[in-house]
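From the pipeline queue, job 12 of 40. The input is one protein chain; the requested action is below.

Action: predict structure.
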Amino acid sequence: MRLITALTILIGMATSHAFASDTKIELLNSTLIAKLHLDPTARKGQMVGAYQVSFRNISDSPLSNLTLLLNPSLVFTHAVGPNNIPLSISSDVTAVAGYELLELNRATVRLPKPLEAGRRTEIVVHYKGYLTNMTFMAVEGVKETLNPDFTMIRADSFGYPVFAEPSQSSIATAFAHKPFQQVVFLDYPGNNNIAGSLGAASKSLNGNVNTVQMKSTFPTGLFAAAIAPYSQLEAGPVTISYLDGGLANGQSFQALAVQEIQQLNRLLGTPSAGAELHFVEIPAGYSNSDTKGAFFRERGFFDATAIPADIKIAIFDLWKTIGGGAPGHWSNGLDAFIQAAITRPESIVEFQQMNFKASQQLFKTNKKMGKTSLADYAIEGFSAQSDAVSTLAYATLYSLLEHEAFFKFVKDLRQETRGKYTDTEVIAEFLKGNIKDKTAKKFARNWFSSGRAGKDMAKAKSFEELLKRYK
């Protein structure tokens, strides 16, 4: 099996729990600085880079060594730790376990002293060299070199250090790492533009050299960017970068994106400030590359007649509540239900029933939870269960209020809580004062404020029966 195919399957299956069990560190923020010399001959194209990364030890034991991977034609030169302390680094080109042809440059960096569990530190790794076309090692579609016509800097080609062991599972885990804050400074020659997972914060031209700073307001996936003769179209927070001849396709996708954004604006209000999503055209033959913040696709993708479900979800992510995602956050259940209702409305009944069954099992497992209000879940130690139960609560409110009234409530809630400290207790109070429908108001009080959800779940054997208790 080729590497990219295998990684796609594994990344799609990855969960936060799998991430936590398969790696020893959590990346917190990074700065990539790279100077590029571009040339049609692969070996003459050159890169000099430094990758500063702050990370936390999330294992249960002290951490002494780190393993990093690079494209086999890039060479690790040295590494430093806090206060510019030199670190011991050794490297060799090695085969990736499980693949016949794939080889990567592996470095082992020794920390100055073992990093205790839960502690954080940072290192800077310096490297240089050129990019090998990885299709020669049976990695389909990852064929970029440092070519002046088109090139990419991305984790797929290991164009900067990736924290992983030389094995299929470790690389897949690294590629699926949860989003983190990143900044990139790139120098490259020529007239081409750059487009990728981070927005261009600044760009200047000194002679024939472009100096670009890229960053994002929100955490993103592993950095990826393409350098080519791009032109751009915009649709609110969505940017479409297309190559020569791709204007018509770009405009077609722009029209679809505008429709999606208008619907979200109508239902939810404006997106989170600074939220952005990039769609970048790549030449035929290069593999699709997805990372949170950007989709890299061939031209045919932009000529679609409808936006695929995964892209609808990516656009909806721009409206998700800031700070959500951590288990127990007040917004997780609301965001989960809204995403389902907007991106897969035809499956909403199935979604409600599946969520009912998942929550039903939780209530059976712990009787105390059924007597606890959602506002007190975190206090009583039920943060891990609150996401599923609050999703069910909002799914029920949706059916009690019906579509228009529910989304008016959501829009008002988002407006009221934006920029303010909010927790589930605040939401419970908002529900009391802003829901007028008597049955929906009673349900909200019972579940969010009064701890009576357990009684409802004990007597209802399906989502429909739960609704009948209030209709």
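Job complete. DSSP finds 14 helices and 19 strands in the chain.
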